[in-house]
């Protein structure tokens, strides 16, 4: 009986390297693939922090050679620009705060890579994400919390489809980060101590405003007014793309007390400023819903709900509102942000999620 073939997305980091090692140990026919996604200026020098940099490609290639598995580089730049970079720019120009990693997972790391992998005869794709995939009693597939609570990445995977999940392996989800590094060290993988990337991969210098200015140019929103929730003008802002909900630093407002961004109004080009308590809200409407572990819910049903990657989650009731969902938290939650993902859980698995459209 022939071995099942799996294509592992190898970034050159320790997690995906150990994923490839574990799958080979489990008896799979493993092929490593590194995705070429983005380089803003093809002629400039790359950095080690940058996604799919030449350094990362070489690290992945070296690991594949050590594991004695084939390694290829696949070009997904067109998919990445369309589904991640263009979306990122469009959302910021609309006064929303995007989550490019979620878009990349759904449309590039899965949709594009799965399609290409199936074309070359693979049975599965695999990644180094800290999550598990389980088929539930209702027959649906869902991502479940990993063994590493601090590294759990289920929030960023809520948008994967059933077709994608049933063809995906996530071997790293059974381990903590420390255990993954020890496996790499024990097997002499030189990436054992390689640090994790902490920034958006296509903006390694974290200068979002500079990136948007270079990419959007004349379409950048102009300067405008800082206002109170009652409409009183209290200063001038640099453009709505410089701000997000809950922001305190960089406002340059001398009001004698700490103040925060509580709302962004793209139609009037205003940034609303308020006190800390003004940043707490209880309700939101989410759109573009993806049901994962469940196929639906009853109005008023409660779920543990996360509004950002590092959020521990809070209990909230869900209600149907056309194709959208209204979510009402038991207690006010800080910095509900349009454009960010909201993900609801049942027990340890993702029930579904969507994109925050409005906040109340």
Largest sheet: 6 strands, antiparallel, barrel
Question: What's the gyration radius in Å?
Answer: 22 Å
CATH topology of the domain at 5-128 and 170-186: Rossmann fold
Helix content: 10-25%
Return the CATH class of the domain at 5-128 and 170-186: Alpha Beta
CATH architecture of the domain at 5-128 and 170-186: 3-Layer(aba) Sandwich
Q: Going by CATH, what is the homologous superfamily of the domain at 5-128 and 170-186?
A: HUPs
Mean residue pLDDT? 94
Helices and strands, in N-to-C order?
Answer: EHEHEHHEEEHEHHEEEEEEEEEE
Strand content: 25-35%
Distance between the termini: 58 Å
Order of strands in the sheet with most strands = 12-15-14-13-16-17
Structural class: alpha/beta
| Broad shape | globular
Strand count = 17
Count of discrete alpha- or pi-helical segments spanning 4 or more residues: 7
Low-confidence segments: none
Overview of this protein structure:
With about 350 residues, the protein is α/β, with parallel strands linked by helices. Among the domains are: about 5-130 and about 170-185, Rossmann fold (3-Layer(aba) Sandwich); about 220-275, SH3 type barrels (Roll). The protein contains 7 helices and 17 strands. The strands form 4 sheets. The chain has a 6-stranded antiparallel barrel. It has a 5-stranded parallel β-sheet with strand order 3-2-1-4-7, sandwiched between helices. Strand 16 and strand 17 (about 350-360) form a beta hairpin. Helix 1 packs parallel to helix 2 (about 55-65). The longest helix is centred in the N-terminal third of the chain and has 20 residues, at about 100-120. The protein is globular and about 70 Å long.
């Amino acid at each position: 009986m022939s071995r099942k073939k799996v294509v592992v997305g190898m970034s050159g980091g320790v997690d995906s390297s150990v994923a490839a090692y574990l799958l080979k140990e489990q008896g799979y026919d493993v092929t490593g693939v590194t995705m070429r996604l983005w380089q803003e200026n093809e002629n400039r020098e790359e950095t080690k922090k940058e996604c799919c940099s030449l350094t990362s490609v070489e690290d992945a290639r070296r690991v594949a050679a050590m594991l004695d598995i084939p390694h290829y580089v696949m070009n997904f730049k067109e998919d990445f620009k369309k589904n991640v970079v263009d979306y990122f720019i469009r959302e910021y120009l609309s006064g929303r705060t995007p989550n490019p990693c979620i878009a990349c997972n759904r449309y590039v790391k899965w949709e594009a890579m799965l399609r290409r992998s199936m074309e070359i005869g693979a049975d599965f794709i695999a990644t180094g994400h800290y999550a598990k995939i389980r088929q539930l009693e209702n027959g649906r597939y869902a991502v479940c919390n990993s063994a590493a609570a601090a590294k759990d990445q289920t929030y960023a995977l809520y948008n994967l489809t059933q077709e994608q999940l049933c063809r995906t392996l996530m071997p790293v989800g059974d381990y903590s980060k420390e255990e993954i590094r020890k496996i790499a060290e024990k097997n002499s993988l030189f990436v054992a101590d390689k640090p994790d990337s902490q920034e958006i991969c296509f903006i390694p210098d974290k200068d979002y405003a500079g990136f948007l200015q270079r990419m959007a140019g004349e379409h950048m929103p102009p300067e405008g007014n800082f206002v109170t929730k009652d409409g009183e003008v209290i200063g001038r802002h640099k453009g709505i793309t410089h701000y997000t909900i809950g922001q305190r630093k960089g406002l340059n407002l001398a009001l004698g007390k700490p103040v925060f961004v509580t709302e962004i109004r793209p139609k009037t080009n205003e940034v609303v400023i308020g006190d800390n308590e003004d940043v707490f809200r209880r309700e939101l409407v989410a759109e573009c819903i993806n049901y994962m572990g469940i196929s639906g819910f009853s109005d008023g049903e409660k779920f543990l709900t996360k509004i950002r990657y590092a959020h521990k989650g809070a209990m909230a009731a869900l209600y149907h509102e056309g194709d959208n969902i209204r979510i009402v938290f038991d207690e006010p939650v800080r910095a509900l942000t349009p454009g960010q993902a909201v993900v609801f859980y049942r027990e340890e698995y993702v029930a579904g999620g969507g994109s925050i459209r409005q906040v109340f």
